[in-house]
Known about the structure:
331 residues; two-stranded antiparallel sheet; 12 helices; 39% helix; 17% strand; globular
Amino acid sequence: MTAPSFGFSVPQAAAFRDGRLAIDELVAFVQHAESLGYRDVVVADHILVPPNWARVIGDVFLDAFTLLAYLAAETERLQLVLGCVVVPYRQPLSVAKAMATLDQLSRGRAALGVVPGYLRAEFDALGVPFGERLAMTDEFIAIMRTAWTDDHASFTGRYHSFSDWNLKPKCVQHPHVPIWVGGASKGALQRALAVGDVWHPLGFVVISDAFMAAHEAEFAGETMQTDGVTPERLRVALASAADDAARHARDLSSLEVVVMPGPPPASPGGAHSAIHTGTRASRGGQEIVDWFGEYLDAGATGFVLGLAGATLDACRASLEHVTAEVMPAFR
């Protein structure tokens, strides 16, 4: 078995004190992770978070493009993953330009994660039609890939059209920066097969049915678009993807499957009943080794950790536990 990759999501909220970012401490944290052998540093993307969802996913989100550009100057080896940009929120040529620039600044270490998004209130606040998010996502990804790879780029679509444009600079990586497709749905996997280098499903439910029901008035009409992927669900999804891969002339083995794992079912709360349970998988111990092994047996090729802890010190301890007690088991 090839050794899996390990990455981590930047604990943005943990780096704030009294409303101010402890940037030097955050940089030291990321540099420490790099020294421990982590491959990917992942920065989440939200522009606005409505109050009901803020209690679930948090409300501290730095601009992902700016933060990754800063970290590019402070690191040497980490892959800088924007994971994941909510594609319909932004003009695709602007995103293509920003990512190509990040790839140049980092000497070829940028990667772009893409998702259609799920927070209806955020869409409404930005004036983006929620019901068109899937069509916008697919078209905007096609526009970015065209702009990155064609010196005489032309495109005719529902939302944008242009002819004979040359976006410069191009990406350092060829044919372009790696595309991580976020989401655990069948549609997300199909999108990954069509345009992605990495499929990046969540292995946990961000918000449980029980919590949703208990706060029915706040979440009326809202659902999570991405369910939690257990090892068994991952195995079934990849087995059923063979026909889709053939339709896209895609070798399924060429697709990385990088999971943000949920906790083992025996953990307190279980794998599908708590809020933001991904943090409970970022610890050491044989239970986690066995659980990650199940994901790998099911087809995963790597992991991104959602780190446990309200402070950078606590998050650092999570990283170190995984480094000392989990990563060696798969080398």
